[in-house]
Amino acid sequence: MISSIQTIEMHTGGEPLRIITGGVPVPEGRTLLEKRAFLRDQADQYRRFLMFEPRGHKDMYGALLVPPDHPDADLAVIFIHNEGYSTMCGHAIMALGRYALDFGLVVKGPEETTVKIQCPCGLVTANVDTHEGITGRVSFESVPAFAYKLGQFVETREYGPVEVDIGYGGAFYGILNAASLGLDVLNSKTRDLAAAATIVSTAIKEQIKITHPEEPDLGYLYGTILTDGELGNEGKPSANICVFADEQVDRSPTGSGVTARMAIASARKAIGTGEICQFESVTGAVFTGQLKSTSKLGPFNAVTVEVAGHSYYTGSAEFTFEDGDPLGGGFLLD
């Protein structure tokens, strides 16, 4: 029975993050992936309680901090959303970097503070800017990212054959130019973009088998990113919108999505090591991505990307359940 759950509320680029600070027991399991599986299979009521109405909404996002099993991690996190449990979340990493610093989970540095966060996809290093007069700026260095498929066609009833790239940035995304669907990221209605991206996601899931080279639990399509077709490397940000999980719309430029886009651009030899690109979301928020290094991950040529943005606090909350409330466990409207 849920009685009371405490949270800290933040956002990055307009995308919310509900950080659970009390009221949810540590999930059973030796590793982070085992804890994530336990929460998903045995204790999903906490996700529904906090993400769904009446306390949340279809586009709410959350983070549960748990003890890490990685020897170098300062903390570990399980990400939650309207459909389940994601493997990576860049906007959440930025917010959690600030949270870890401000709430004493790490020791503050004079100019920059490093926070090592174990995610389901691996260890991610966040760097919180602590220069005087700068508020909210956080960057993180991604796990190895790679292009999984380039120029792959999927069949859709609504649009016919659609050409997509599939990239991995801690999670797998389908990536394509919105114009190929007759849409414009910054001028079309959000609901139209979300519906189109969902059609593409459904087609990819049905027609393309996705596997991760090292961890089977990471091998699935998380969402689809519609872009303006630009790279964002000529002084003007490239606009994109990410639609993930159950038609959930990311208000931010999407940190793991930026990572995947940079990996795709690198695979196409459109950018090189050290190059910086900018990415803008539907809220006008901008993330930067910089190609840091190259490596191999299984059969794939991989890259490491540094993504930067700004996170801010919006409040704190205590959520309760009143006996007899038939809707108190959470609900969503289609």
What can you see in these coordinates?
With 334 residues, this protein is an alpha+beta fold. The chain folds into two domains: 4-140 and 314-319, Diaminopimelate Epimerase, Chain A, domain 1 (Roll); 145-309, Diaminopimelate Epimerase, Chain A, domain 1 (Roll), CATH 3.10.310. The chain has helices at 32-42, 45-51, 90-102, 190-207, 255-267; strands at residues 4-12, 15-22, 62-66, 75-80, 112-119, 122-129, 137-141, 145-156, 160-168, 172-177, 221-227, 238-244, 248-249, 276-280, 286-297, 300-320. The protein has a 16-stranded mixed β-sheet that branches. The two termini are 27 Å apart. The model has no long low-confidence stretch (mean pLDDT 96).
Compact description:
The chain has two domains: 4-140 and 314-319, Diaminopimelate Epimerase, Chain A, domain 1, CATH 3.10.310; 145-309, Diaminopimelate Epimerase, Chain A, domain 1 (Roll).
Beta-strand share of residues: 35-45%
Q: What's the architecture of the largest domain, going by CATH?
A: Roll
Encode the helix/strand succession as letters.
EEHHEEHEEEEEEHEEEHEEE
**How large is the radius of gyration?**
19 Å
CATH topology of the largest domain: Diaminopimelate Epimerase, Chain A, domain 1
Count of DSSP helices?
Answer: 5
* Gross morphology: globular
Computed structural class: alpha+beta
User: What value does the average pLDDT take?
Assistant: 96
For the record, the CATH class of the largest domain is Alpha Beta
Query: How is the main sheet built?
Result: 16 strands, mixed
The total count of strands amounts to 16
**Amount of helix:** 10-25%
